Give the backbone structure.
Amino acid sequence: MKRNRLSLLLVLLLAAALVLTGCSGGGNATPANTTPTDNTPQTGENSDLIPAVVGYWGGTCESPIFVAYEKGFFKEAGLDVKLLKITGDVAVLMANDELDAFELTPDKFKPMEQGLELMIIDSLHKGCIQGAAAKESGIQSVADLEGKKVAAAIGGIAQIQIASEMVKLGKDPKKVTWLSYPNAQMEQALDQGEVDAFATYDPFPEMAVQNGKIKFYSNTFDPGLKDTLCCFIGMNKRTLDANPEIGKRMSQAFTKACEYLEEKPDEAAQMVMDKGYIAGDAALNAQLIKDYTWIAGDKKTVDDSFREIWHQIARAGALEKAPADLDTYIDGLYVQMVSFMGEH
């Protein structure tokens, strides 16, 4: 019965995560100086350009969005993109036709299962979620979390992955006290002794590690996690149904952006810092960009990652009812949630 209550709680809070989480965290976790000085595209320059709104929260791993915009890759692909700083519920933005695409994290998988009209159209990268612990906590890995207080988005992918890894190690994630804080306040809560550890999107955990904290979890480096996509390109299903060509052009632009990030990580980091898109400093973000695997246009990686993430969700106890055949259930979700556009 306790497990059932935990599962229901996770499901409900996953849906709530639409408002509170993204690749950098929610609207309440907006770092200072993350509003670009100029993010309004020139419209009407070319009648062949298709208008589209691409949203972002302000995380390091959203660098493909900023690179594609600033380097002109969206326009080269035939898109007239306007960037939108997301501070609220993406479901409302999409329903009002105010948002066409954004970097989709596994936090959205449960809401998509429950009917959110959002589609995965391509791969983007591996890595970007990590965890930091106080030195005095005794935490070295997820195996040490029983009896500890951990800050994470409740029902978010960091909590799901940590719970999944604990189960694999024979540990009980229900013995962790999970607490919710805005991303930008997690390290402060750690310093004040309110929590023993926290886990969220970069750059916040890496900033804490640079300040002397212990890295205890990383889907950038940890075996069993590092080979699974952290982020995908997500598109409003209504936009995609109305004009599938937008999805193909998005994939083309993001592919060029990922290639640029692989080839010129230092230049990319400096550019997105100069434009005020993300927190931290250029050196920190350059190192994070180098740590990630940028991999747009890879259908096999999308397929494998999609299935692995659903196994993590199931292992963590976040499915309302465990299906008799989980793999068959995931196959059905794939048809519902994925429309791969990366073949160009």
